[in-house]
Amino acid sequence: MASGLGTPPLTTELLLVAALAVAAAVLLRATLVVATPSQHLTVVRPGRGALLGDRVALMVPFSRAVRAVPGSGSLAEVPVAAVTRDGVRLSLAVAVSWTLLDAHSARLEPEDEVRRAVTNALRWWLQRRPAPAAGDLLVVDGRARDLAAGVAELSGVRIDHLWVRDWTPLPAGEGAAR
């Protein structure tokens, strides 16, 4: 070097070994996260959009998105053609019917009803075979996001990023017009 104060070769080697050790630790942690998929559901970030091949647990208002599934307050797997986003067909969708989110009803269900629906959806998702894998997406309606996060913590599921779909209930009588 021009200054004559170069780094001793031994110090350079030690720095290289330390850097490799840090990289190995990060890789090991990532591997461990992938190895426990049922405890780690990654939620799609805003703007990312769903990609072909993504598996999505989608909680949506029954009356606006899935009309072919009978029942109220029920959980059902629906055909992939029933729900799309940004023109991308999702490979899995789950519909949860809540009066709270129903455009055809002005009344709101008690919080425990919403909590029960979220709990059932998470339980169903975690018990699916094949089990959820790291990178699977969980999309939760905005009104249930706080409840879902709380239930998820109790279920041992970490929600990293919550993508909020904005559903605005219509005033009574306007549901059929849309």
Write the layout of secondary structure elements.
Elements: H1 9-35, E1 40-41, E2 56-58, H2 62-65, E3 75-78, E4 84-85, E5 88-89, E6 93-96, H3 111-126, E7 137-141, H4 145-154, E8 158-159, E9 164-165
Parallel strand pairs: 1-8, 2-7, 7-9
Antiparallel strand pairs: 3-6, 4-5
Helix pairs in contact: 3-4
CATH classification class? Alpha Beta
Tally of DSSP helical segments: 4
Class based on secondary structure composition and strand pairing: alpha/beta
The total beta strand count reads 9
Strand order of the largest sheet: 2-7-9
Helical amount: 25-40%
CATH topology: Leucine Aminopeptidase, subunit E, domain 1
Summarize the helix and strand pattern as letters.
HEEHEEEEHEHEE
Second-tier CATH architecture: 3-Layer(aba) Sandwich
- Tell me the overall shape: elongated
Number of domains: 1
- What's the story with the biggest beta sheet? 3 strands, parallel
- Poorly predicted spans: 26-111, 131-148, 151-178
Mean pLDDT: 41
Strand content: 5-15%
Alpha carbon gap, first and last residue:
74 Å
Radius of gyration: 23 Å
Structure write-up:
This protein has 178 residues and is of the alpha/beta class. The protein has one domain: Leucine Aminopeptidase, subunit E, domain 1, CATH 3.40.220. Helices cover 32% and strands 15% of the residues. The chain contains 4 helices and 9 strands. The strands form 4 sheets. The chain has a 3-stranded parallel β-sheet with strand order 2-7-9, with no helix packed on it. The protein has a two-stranded parallel ribbon with strand order 1-8. A hairpin with a 2-residue loop joins strand 4 (84-85) and strand 5. Helix 3 packs across helix 4 (145-154). It is elongated and about 85 Å long. The relative contact order is 0.18.
